[in-house]
Amino acid sequence: MSEHAVVAEGVGKVFNAGSTDQVEALKGIDLTIEGGEFVSLIGPSGCGKSTLLRLIGDLVQPSSGRLEVNGKTPHQARLDRDYAMVFQKATLLEWRTVGKNVQLPLEIMGVDKADRERRSRDYLDLVQLGEFVDHYPWQLSGGMQQRVAIARGLVFDPALLLMDEPFGALDEMTRERMQMELMDIWRRTGKTVVFVTHSIPEAVFLSTRVVVMSPRPGRITDVIDVDLPQPRTFDTRESTPYYEKMTEVREALRAAGVGVE
Amino acid sequence: MSLQHDPDVLEAFDADVPGEPQVDVSRVRERLREVAPAIVLFVAALALWELTVIVFDIKEFLLPRPTVILVTLVENWAEIAKAAFATFKEAVGGFVVGAAAGALVALATARWTGFRTGVLPIAIALNSAPIIALAPIMNQWFGLTNPVSKMAVVAIIVFFPVMINTARGLTEVDPAEIELLDSYAASPSEVMRNVRIPSALPFFFAALKVGTVLSVIGAIVAEYFGGPRDVLGVYITQQASLLHIAEAWAAIVVATVLGVAMYTVVLVAERLIMPWHASFRDQGA
């Protein structure tokens, strides 16, 4: 694909414009993401990273500037089901079984039943939850629920994955395992991923580029290429370049005036 | 205990087959253990009632003993059963009409914002009106002897809680679920079917359960305002005025059973329609 996955030019977002609780969530965002990239948006709470993700997904409308997704308006990209959103909360529908939850987007898109069942099984197998197809969400742990949400995002094969702190609510061990699984899926499927996080290790481990943001108003203060070798493995986490990149991101955050954890 | 499904255990061991025979047997035993205290308490209360009447020598026209009520019920069974069946038809008919209308209006309020903002405040205001006071007017409209006049009272009584609760359930949904559906560019009717209606079911059933009790009350009180003779409301007032207190109590017992029966039907329907709901999950899960 020659066109860019995401283009933002001078994008700004003001909430409650004109009222006393007006908030400038984003200001002058310029960002181009190529197909197949894994880009993390990192910054403290209130830096507008989730808002930027929702702007790309056409779930929030920009106050200024121009956005393009797969060479189209975000609205057209949403209508064309070009992207899948994965939230911090798994947001599984509790009245649907795991299998039916994964089938939800396919149902809405009018895919026939046999195809739906086959594809939901394939993607549940991919996240290693094939045997839980008939379970209800409450019977699964938090990490398993989030894997179901990822399977639901992948099942209709969108070119773009928009992930909003998907592992933020998980314990450290589950989180690292999920990161490995996501890396694996990303390498195998060649999708573009835009990943919101406030964890420096997570951003560095996963990304090809880290976009550093700072709050009030939310803006991009630095973009750091992460050229650690692929595929990234357990050893990556213990390599010197990995630590050097984390230091680089940490310093970029500090330079942006952000107190680092 | 092998019954308990801890999520971590689930993750570690993939063998989890719900509905294994031995599980079912223990489940029945578990249920019995749950209902046992209620049964014991009920029997104890009846015994206490019986003893109190005997010990303090309370006159039968004031408070008959449970055993006397039971004997009276058996002796007058044909008459009471006939009256109960007529009342039951009024209660069920009104309940079905009121609940269906309530659900439909609630769906309309969720679908059209203008309709919601116009209708809901009025409905909430009307809900606090003493609807039973409409009974004489319904008698005028539909005819004193026509059971429809009683059904109308019941239907109006059931309508408001069902409508208001269901409307709340349809609108108070998890915003994340709406956002998820929006990300798939789902249409409003798909959002309704996939998120709003399932989210509203617990509210709807809670209102139906209240409605079953209200419908028996509504039917009997509406009968007090006049109408056919062979109904529970008339039977109770007549027997009480003749100081046949045991007969009146027997009819009240039957009216209670009607309410419990309707409640049970709703409870079973609820379990069948939303087996996923948190209230039906196994203990210890």
What does this entry look like structurally?
The complex is a heterodimer of chains A (261) and B (285). Chain A is α/β, with parallel strands linked by helices and 261 residues long. Chain A has a domain of 69 residues. Helices cover 36% and strands 23% of the residues of chain A. Chain A has eight helices and nine strands. Chain A has a six-stranded mixed β-sheet, with helices on both faces. In chain A, a hairpin with a 4-residue loop joins strand 8 and strand 9. The longest helix of chain A is centred in the last third of the chain and has 18 residues. Chain A is globular and about 50 Å long. Chain B is mainly alpha-helical and 285 residues long. Chain B has two domains: 49 residues; 215 residues, Orthogonal Bundle (MetI-like fold). Chain B is built from eleven helices and no strands. In chain B, helix 4 packs antiparallel against helix 9, helix 9 packs parallel to helix 10 and helix 9 packs antiparallel against helix 11. Chain B starts with 6 loop residues before the first helix and ends in a 12-residue tail after the last helix.
Which key terms come to mind for this protein?
heterodimer, A: 261 residues, alpha/beta, six-stranded mixed β-sheet, three-stranded antiparallel β-sheet, 8 helices, 23% strand, B: 285 residues, mainly alpha, MetI-like fold, 2 domains, 77% helix, flat
| Distance separating the two termini of chain B | 12 Å
Oligomer state equals heterodimer
Query: How are strands sequenced across the largest beta sheet of chain A?
Result: 5-6-7-3-8-9
Annotation field: number of helices of chain B: 11
What is the N-to-C order of secondary-structure elements of chain A (H for helix, E for strand)? Answer: EEEHEHEHHHEHEHEEH
Q: Portion of residues in helices of chain A?
A: 25-40%
- CATH top level of the largest domain in chain B? Mainly Alpha
Ranges of chain B where pLDDT stays below 50 over 5 or more residues in a row are 1-21
Spatial gap, N to C terminus of chain A: 39 Å
Largest interface: A-B, 29 and 29 residues
Order of helices and strands of chain B: HHHHHHHHHHH
Q: Could you tell me the CATH topology label of the largest domain in chain B.
A: MetI-like fold
Percent helix of chain B, as a range, is over 70%
Tell how many strands the DSSP assignment of chain B holds: 0
- Fraction in beta strands of chain A: 15-25%
